[in-house]
Backbone:
C-alpha cells in the first residue's frame, strides 16, 4: 500500500501522468483538462508530463499553460516518446495515454486504484471490452490485428493479455527500468507486455472507453507495417528466451 498522506504538491508526486505528443496542440488542451479534473478528485499528489517528440506547433506552450512539465524527446517514435516521458517521471505510479483525445482520462482511477491499493504492479486499459465510439478503431485492428497479436502473447508468454495495443497503461515506476524496453515505435506496446510477463508482474486489464481521435489529429499508425513490427518483436523475444 502506497503512502497517500503526503502533501498535495506536484514536486513530490504519487502519480505521474505521461502524454507522448507530436503536434497535438488542439487536442492536448482537452486531454490536460480531463487529467487535471480527474486527478484533483483523487486527492493525491500528481504531476503531468508532456513528452514532446519535436513538435513544431504550439503543443509545448499549451502544456505549460496547464502546469504540465514538458520533456523534449529528440528521437522520433511512439515508444521513444513514452519512454522519455516515463524516465523523467517522479511519481510512485506512472500512467500514460495518448494526447489525441481517444482515451477519456476520466478512466484514470480504474487503472491507478488497484496499484495504489497494492494489488497490482501493472494495469492496462482494455478498449475491446467496452463501448467504443463508432469509427474510433479500424475494423481490421479491432477484429483481426489486435486479437491475433494478443493471442500470440498469451500463448507464448503466459500473460493474460487481450488488448496488446491498448495505449492507456499504469504501473509502479520501480518496475519500469528492469523491463529494459528499447523499441522506439508502436511495437513498444508489445515489448512492454512481453517484458512484464518475463518479470512475472502482477498484471490486470480493466475495461475503458475509446473515442474517435480529435479531428486535428494526424494518424501515425500504419496498420500493416506496425503489425509486422509487433509480430517481429513477439517472435524475436520468444527465440531469445
Residues:
Amino acid at each position: 500500500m502506497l503512502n497517500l498522506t503526503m502533501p498535495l504538491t506536484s514536486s513530490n508526486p504519487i502519480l505521474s501522468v505521461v502524454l507522448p505528443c507530436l503536434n497535438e496542440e488542439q487536442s492536448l488542451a482537452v486531454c490536460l483538462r480531463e487529467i487535471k479534473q480527474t486527478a484533483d478528485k483523487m486527492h493525491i499528489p500528481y504531476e503531468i508530463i508532456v513528452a514532446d517528440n519535436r513538435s513544431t506547433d504550439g503543443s509545448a506552450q499549451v502544456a505549460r499553460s496547464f502546469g504540465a512539465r514538458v520533456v523534449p524527446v529528440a528521437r522520433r517514435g511512439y515508444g521513444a516518446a513514452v519512454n522519455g516521458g516515463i524516465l523523467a517521471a517522479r511519481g510512485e505510479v506512472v500512467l500514460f495515454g495518448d494526447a489525441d483525445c481517444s482515451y477519456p482520462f476520466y478512466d484514470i482511477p480504474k487503472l491507478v486504484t488497484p496499484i495504489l491499493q497494492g494489488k497490482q504492479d501493472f494495469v492496462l486499459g482494455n478498449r475491446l471490452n467496452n463501448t467504443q465510439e463508432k469509427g474510433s478503431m479500424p475494423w481490421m485492428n479491432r477484429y483481426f490485428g489486435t486479437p491475433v497479436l494478443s493471442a500470440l502473447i498469451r500463448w507464448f508468454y503466459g500473460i493474460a493479455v487481450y488488448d496488446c495495443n491498448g495505449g492507456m497503461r499504469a504501473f509502479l515506476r520501480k518496475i519500469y527500468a528492469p523491463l529494459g524496453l528499447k523499441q522506439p515505435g508502436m511495437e513498444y506496446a508489445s515489448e512492454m507486455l512481453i517484458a512484464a510477463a518475463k518479470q512475472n508482474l502482477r498484471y490486470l486489464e480493466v475495461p475503458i472507453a475509446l473515442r474517435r481521435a480529435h479531428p486535428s489529429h494526424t494518424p501515425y499508425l500504419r496498420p500493416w507495417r506496425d503489425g509486422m513490427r509487433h509480430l517481429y518483436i513477439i517472435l524475436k523475444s520468444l527465440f531469445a528466451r
